[in-house]
Amino acid sequence: MSDFQSKGQRFVALCLLGTLLFNYPILALFNVPGTVLGVPVLYVYMFVAWAALIAAMAWLAESKR
Amino acid sequence: MLHGTTIILISVAYLGVLFAIAYFADGRADAGRSVIASPYVYSLSLAVYATAWTFYGSVGRAASDGVGFLPIYIGPTLMIALWWVVLRKILRISKQNRITSLADFIASRYGKSALLGGLVTVIAVIGILPYISLQLKAVSSSFSILVQYPDIIMPSKAGTSSIREDAALWMALLLAAFTIAFGTRHLDAAEHHQGMVAAIAFESLVKLLAFLAAGAFVTFGMYDGFGDLFARASSEPRLREMMTPLEGVAGGYSNWAWLTVLSMMAIMFLPRQFQVAVVENVDEKHLTKAIWMFPLYMLAINIFVLPIAFGGLLRFPDGSVDADTFVLTLPMAEKHELLALLVFIGGLSAATGMVIVETIALSTMVCNDLVMPVLLRLRRLRLNERPDLTGLLLGIRRGAIVLILILGYLYFRLAGEAYALVSIGLISFAAVAQFAPAILGGIFWKGGTRAGALWGLSAGFGIWLYTLLLPAIARSGWLPVSLLDEGPFGIALLKPLQLFGLAGLDSISHAMIWSMIANVGAYVGVSLSASPNADEHRQASVFVDVFRHSGEAGGARFWRGTASVPELYNLLARFLGSSAADEAFEDYARARNLTWPDSALVADAELVHYVEVQLAGAIGGASARVMVASVVKEETLTIEEVRDILDEASQVVVYSHRLEQKSRELEAATAELREANERLEELDRLKDDFVSTVTHELRTPLTSIRAFTEILLDDPDVELGQRRKFLVIITKETERLTRLINQVLDLAKIESGKAEWAKTPVDMKDVIADTLTAMGQVFKEKNIEVIARVPDRVSPVIADLDRMIQVMLNLLSNAAKFCDQSRGRIEITLVEKSGTLQVDVRDNGRGISREHQVEIFSKFHQVGDKLTDKPHGSGLGLHISRQIIEHFGGRLWVDSDVGCGASFSFSVPTSAASPALAA
Fold it and tell me: Whole domain around residue A28: which residue ranges?
C-alpha cells in the first residue's frame, strides 16, 4: 500500500511538473520567433516536452516500486 | 470519379466490418476467451476521445490560431498522470458497487439519490447532444465534399443539401442499429460490452492510420518534409504571425490554461470516457499500460495537425475552403482518390466510435437514472407483479438510443451550421466539466452532501446554459442577437458573454470561470451548511475509504433487517433473467463453500448487499435500493448508528494498531530484560568466584600463622632460635595478610568508584627515581642489575603521585620476583612520544606464554602452577595497576615470549595532551 501511495505521489508531482511546463511563464520562454531544423521553436518545444512527459509517465507506471 | 453510391457502399462495408468484429468479440466473450482483456485494447478504446472533432476540427483550429488546439490533448495527458490516484479509486469504487454510469456514480455517492441521478442524466444528455450532432455533421460534410470529387465545393455552397442531410440521417439510423445490436444485446450486471469495445479499438487504429497517412502525404508528398513546409509558410507574413500565436493575444495564456483545465475534466467525465475507462474496464492492471499508451496515441494523432493546417493554408490561400476540411480536401486537390477515401473512412470511424459509445453511455443513464426510478415510483405495484423485467429494461435502452440519435440529428438540422466544429465540442466539454466538483469532491471529501451536489450541479449547469448554450441558440437565429450584444432587457451586466462585466476572455474561459465559481461554491457551501444524513454518511464512507474496506462486503456493515432468500432470488431474476440470477447466486454460494439452489444460504446483511449490488449493475444504485427495500424488512439506521458503525470500524483499526505497537514494545523490553538478567548472572558468578578466591587467599597465610602459634603455645620448650624463626614467619604472613586485605579494600574502592584520586602534575622521572630508591635494598639482596634509561626532561602527567608510585612498585617488584634468580637484570625505559609518556619495565626471567598474557591482568591470577610453586603475591597487583593507569586515560600491557623475559609497559597522556583531565 505504501508503495502505491509513493507511486501516486510521484504521479502527482509529474502532473504538477507538466502543468508548469505547459503554462505561463515557461511557455512564454519558447514563444519566440526562430526555428529548430526548420520547425518553429514553440512547436518543437511543445512536442518534445509532451513526449518527455509521456516517457516519464511510462517509466513511472511500469516501474515496480 | 468517386460516385456517391460507391462511397456509400464502401461506408456500409466498413460498418459491416465493425459488425463482424463486434460479433466475433462477443462470441469470444461468451466462450470465455475475451479479446478485450488486454491493456492494448483498453488503451485503444480510450482513444474514442479522438472524435471527428479531432480528425477534422483540430486542423481547423490550428489554421486559425496555431498551437491553440493542443490543450485539448495536453490537458488529458496531465490528467492521466493523476489517474494512478484518481481513476484507480473510481475504478475500485465502481467495481465494488457495480456502478455503470456517471449518473449512477454521483447518485450512489450522495446517498443513492434518484433525484441527483436524474439531474446528472439531464445535464449529460443536453450537454452531449450538440457533440453527437457534430459527429453527424462531420460525416455528412465530408461525404458531400468527397462526392463532388474531383471538384472541391464546400457544403454550404453546394446547391442541393438534401443528399448530405439524408446521409446524416442514414448514418444516425445505421449507428442506432449497431449500438442496439452490441450495446443492448443482453442485460449484464457488469455492463460489459465486449464486442462494442473491440470495434471501438479497431476504429481507433483506423482513424490514426488514416490521419497519419494524410499527414505524411502532405508533409512528405506535397512538400519536402517539415522544414520545407514551415519555411514556405513563414515566407508569408500572415502565416508567420501564427508561429508565435500566444503573443499579443489578450488573455492568450489564460485561455490556454482554461482550455487545459476543461480538457482535463473532459477526459474523466465525458460519458463515453467514463464508459470505456471505468465501466468497460475488465482489469485494474490495464491502467499501467494505458497511462502512457493513450497519451502517446494523442501525441501521434497530433503530430501532423500543424503541417496539414499550413499545407492547407498555402494550397488554398483565398479562404474558399473551410480549414475544417483540409485533411480531406488536400488529398482531393492533389487528385489522390484512394487517400481521400481512406481519410473519409478515418473520419467516419472517428465519428461512429464516438456516437456508439456515447449513446450506450447515455442510454444506460436515461434508463437507470431517469426512466426506471420514475416507473418504479409511478407504477410500482404493477411492475412488481411482472415476473421478468429484462425485456422492459432492454426496451427502454433501445428506445433511448434511437431517441438520442434522432435528437442529435435534429440538433444538427436546426443549429448545426452556426459554429465551427471546435466550438460545438467545447460547449459539451464545459457541460461535463460541471460533474467534476461532485465526483472529485465525492471521492476525496466525506463532507460533501446530496444537497451540496444538487445545488452545485444546478448552479454550474445554469451558468452553462446561460453563457454557452443561450448564445449558441441566439447565433443560430432562434433568439434575437441583441440578447448577446445588449444583455437581457438591456442590462449590460447580464450579457451572457460578458457576465458581470467580465470581458477579454473567450466564451469558453468566461463560462468556465463563472460556472466553476458557482458550482464549487454551492457544492462546498451547501454541504457545509447542513450535516449529512445516515445514507449520505454511509455512502461517503464507502466511497472515500474504498481502499480501506476490502471486498464487496464493505457496504453490508450498514444493513440491519430481515429478508428471505427466495424473495431476493426472485427480485434478481425479475431484472436480470433467471439464468443470470442463478449464476449470481451460484457465485455467491461458491465463495462461501455452499451450493445453490439446495443449500443453507442465509439471507443475512451480506446476501442482501450482494443482491443490491448485482441489481445496481442492471438498474442503477438508486433504483436497486428501492427494489431491495421493497422485498426485505429493513430497519432504518439513524445517523448516530451509522456513525457508531464507522467509529467502531475505525476504532478497531486504531486499537489493533496500538496493540501491535504494544506487543512490539513488549518484545523489545523482554529482550532487554533478558540481556540484563544474563549480565547480572555473570556478575553474580564473578562475585562468587571473587569471594571464594579471596577466602582461599586469606586462609593460606592464616593457616600458617595458626599452625606456628599453636606450636609455640603447645610446646613451651621450643628453643629460642626456633621460636624466633617461627615468629618471623608469623610476622611475614601477617604482613601478607594485611597487604592482601588492603589490596582487596583498595580494589573494592576503585571498582565501586569511591576511591579518591588526586590529580596533580606528576613528573614520571621522580616516580621512577623514588621507586628505585625504595626497592634498592631488594635489588641489592637479590643481586639484580638495574638499568634505568630516563631522559633529562619529560612533560608532566596529570595523575595521583601515590598511585603512580604504587603502579611502578608493583611492576618493579614483579620484575624482581620473576627475573633470572642468579643473574637478574631489569631495564627501565622512559620515553615521551606524541603526547604520551611510556614506561617499560623489562626483566630477563622465563617470560610469559601468550595464553597467559591476558589472564595475568585478571583478579587473583598468579603465574605458575599453583600446586608446586609457592605463590609470589596476592594476584591483585597487576589488576589494580591496570585499573589505575586506565583511570588516568592510559593503558598497561605486556610484551613477552617464553624464555625471553617479559616487558611490562604503560603509557599515560602528558598534561598537554589531556586538557580535560588537567582541568
Answer: 2-62
